[in-house]
Structures are given as structure tokens and as C-alpha cells.
Amino acid sequence: MAKIIGGLTTSHIPAVGNAMAGKLEQDPYWKRFFDGYEPVKQWLDEVKPDLAIIVYNDHGLNFFLDKVPTFALGCADRYQNADEGWGIPASADVPGDAQFSWHLAESLIRQEFDMTTCQEMLVDHGFMVPMNLFWRQYEQWPVKAIPLAVNTVQHPLTSAARCYKLGKALRKAVESYPEDMKVVVIGTGGLSHQLQGERAGIIDVDFDLKCIDKIINEPEWMTGLSNDYIMEKAGTEGIEVIMWMVMRGALADKVDVLHKHYHAPISNTGAGVLLLTDAAAQ
Amino acid sequence: MVWNRHDYDEIPGTYVFDGKRANSGYALNRMAFSFNSEQNRKEFAADMDAYCRKYGLTDEQREAVLNGEFLKLLHLGCNVYYLAKIAVFHGLNVQDAGAAFQGITADEFRQKLLDQSAGFQSRLETEGGFWHG
Fold first, then answer.
1. Domain residues for A246?
2. In chain A, what residues touch B93 (CB-CB under 8 Å)?
3. Is B61 contained in some domain?
4. Residue A275 falls inside a structural domain
5. How many whole angstroms separate alpha carbon B130 and alpha carbon A222?
6. Is A277 part of any domain?
7. Closest by alpha carbon to A252, among A212, A222, A282, A214?
8. Is the pLDDT of residue B59 over 80?
């Protein structure tokens, strides 16, 4: 039986992709940010997950605005990264697992989450920056991955509450797969940032830390937040935090915190990292 | 024929990218999407005006693209991620555009980010349980 062995979160800032490509990890601006990933990388080295489900949003690589699925699931054996138009170097293709993907699609749709299924899916920095943050030290990707894209670009968007429920459905879907597999779910994006308008440049450390605490200890609190409220506090792009709720929903009600990291600013953003597992004592 | 009003319309200095903006900015964003291809970027760079006309931008949108008027592009329905694909032709990134939206320099914009994050490490100590290296 497949099993979720942990939940991770990370920002997916393009500038981080450029910093990794330029090997700037020891640069004073970047050092504290990147060092905060080392304990997670060590844990991943020890537990060796077979597959990562990466919850992210596409920023105009695979999906144009002609068709915008609220939830889309990669159902391929291979995912290609590609040119987004502004120069981030492309990473090696990432292996998928089509059989597992189609199982997830069947289970999720049965549970009333009507996923768009994608047999071809270009994955952008939203997916690749997390892959590189956790696994770039390997010559070849040591895990398979499945992209789960959530629309956070073109409103109306889904909600934190709905993402949390999707996470719960995802757990059921994973646990009903007959093959023994160790799975991690990665919620990406956020935390506070606004890229657009005269209000660009918002970082709200207090709100970010409150979200981190509530996501760990009281995720129901997050499900009560409207998108309007999150955008007002955390900025229009800070809404990406709802994708952390998919990760949280996929874990047990009580979790153990194996790692918690925050740094600001990174580029325009308050950047958070979590490593959570189901609590040993429920 | 009326666009719905939303609470988020009241957030100052903010242009939430919804149906109304997606509709008015469609051709503009479609052109920006084409810049994912290097060949299209070359074609645009060779004759920006002609490329904008090919994609059916309004005169106002075309002028804003050619002049690098980023705030105006938001007003005219450009999505910020697509704006990033246009900004590179002016030698700029999203952070530079963030400064341009409010008429400040990129250094001033970065200082604004630092100011808002100031003291975050002591906040983490108060909160407890955070990694500190």
C-alpha cells in the first residue's frame, strides 16, 4: 500500500531558481535561506521517498489563459521543464508514474474533486524550483514526481477550505493504491508577496508566522479565511498559501514538526519551509 | 452587461486578475505567452510594433508595450506573470516592474522589502521552534 510519509512546504520563487543555477548558495544574501533547507534534504536522504506529489501553480508555461483548470493532475511518465521567456535555465526532465497518476485521478474524481487530467504537461518554476531545492545534489532525480496544478493566477480561485479537503481526498487516494510506495506531498508557493500594482512589495511577517502556526496546529482556522482577506494581508500572490493546505489535508489531524524555517525577504517574498509528519501519538 | 463587483476591488493599488481583466487583456497576454518561444522573441525584437499588430493589441496596449509603461499594462488587463515576459525586452525583471508601478527606484523597492522584514529573526525567537542554523 502507498503511504504518505511526510508533508513539505516551500516557496517557489524564480529568483531562487536563478540563484541555484548560478551557485549562489553561499552568497550572504542567500546563505541563511538555503541553509534552512539542509535538514529537510538530510531527512529526505534518510527516508528516501519513492514519489513526490508537488502542488503548485503554473505561471503561463503549460496553461495559457484560454483554458484554466482549477485543479489539474499530471498523468504522464515524464514531465518536461521549458523556457518561460525570461531566462531561467531548463532542468532535466522529471520522471512521473502514469499508473499511479491515473489511480489518483480515478479516486479523486470519485471523491468529487473533478481533476483535469494532463497526459502532456510542461512544468514551470513553480514545480522545478522545489524539485531543485530538495534534490539538485543528485546527478539524476532520485524520486518520481506528479504535478498537481492549482489555479492561483486567474480569478475566481478555489479556497483554502477546498484545498484542505482536496488534501484529505488525496490521502485516501494515495492510501488506496496497492503498490508499496513512500510518498511525500509538497505544498509550494507563498508566503506573503505582491508583485503587481502600486501596492507591490508587501511582506507581512506577522501574518506569515501566524499562517505557519495555524497550518501546523489549527488548519481549520485557515479554512475560515476568504481569498479577499488573504490577498489583503499577504498580497495578491500571497494567495498561493492555499496550496500549503493541500499538503496539510494529506496529513493526520495532529502532526509533528520536524523542521520549521522562515526567511524574509527573498526576492519579493516571505519564504517558509516546513517538514511535517503524522504525529507519532494521535 | 455588467461586471460583478468584488470586495477585493477595494484593496488599494491592486489589480486582481479576474474575468474582467482577463477579457480586456486577452490579446495582450496571448502575445506575452508567445514569448515562451525564442523564435517569437526574435521576431518581436526585430519589429515590436508589427508583432503587436499581428496579435491584435489595442493602440493603447501597443503603445504601453513599446514604451514599457508597466502600470498602464496592468490597467489594460496584463497579468503580472505575463508582464514579466514583456519586461525582459526592456532589460527588467518583475522586481524592477514592482518599483516602476509605484514610481520608485529598484533600490528603493528593495529597501521597502527589507524594512517590512526588519526584525523577523527576533520574531522567530519569540514564536519558538524555528531553525536558526
1. 2-270
2. 86
3. yes
4. no
5. 20
6. no
7. A282
8. yes
The pTM of the full predicted model, rounded to 2 decimals, is 0.98
Put simply, whether A154 touches B (Cβ < 8 Å) is yes
Per-residue pLDDT of chain A (282 residues; tens, 9 = 90+): 999 999 999 999 999 999 999 999 999 999 999 999 999 999 999 999 999 999 999 999 999 999 999 999 999 999 999 999 987 889 999 999 999 999 999 999 999 999 999 999 999 999 999 999 999 999 999 999 999 999 999 999 999 999 999 999 999 999 999 999 999 999 999 999 999 999 999 999 999 999 999 999 999 999 999 999 999 999 999 999 999 999 999 999 999 999 999 999 999 999 999 999 999 976
ipTM for this model: 0.96
- Boundaries of domain holding B26: 8-103
Name the residue in chain A with its Cα closest to that of B41: A85
Q: Is the CB of A64 inside 8 Å of chain B's CB atoms?
A: yes
CB neighbourhood size of A78 (10 A): 13
A22 at B interface, C-beta within 8 A: no
Residues 113-132 of chain B whose Cβ lies under 8 A from any Cβ of chain A: 113-114, 116-117, 119-120, 123-124, 127, 129-131
| Residue B30 touches chain A, beta carbons under 8 Å | yes
CATH of the domain at B31: 1.10.700.10
* Residue A192 DSSP symbol: S
| Cβ-Cβ contacts under 8 Å, A204 against chain B | 116
Q: Is residue B56 part of a domain?
A: yes
Number of domains in chain A: 1
Backbone angles phi, psi at B131, to 5 degrees: -70, 135
Would you call A125 a catalytic residue per the annotation? Answer: yes
Cβ atoms of residues A105 and A166 within 8 Å? no
CB B52 within 8 A of CB B66: yes
* Residue in A259, A261, A268 closest to B98 by CB: A268
Q: Calculate mean pLDDT across residues B42-52.
A: 98
**Does a structural domain hold residue A280?**
no
Respond yes or no: is residue A193 known to be catalytic: yes
Identify the three-state secondary structure at position A207. helix
Interchain pair A232, B8: CB under 8 A: yes
The interface residues of chain A toward chain B in range 92-151, judged by CB-CB distance below 8 A, are: none
A202: its cell numbers: 508587501
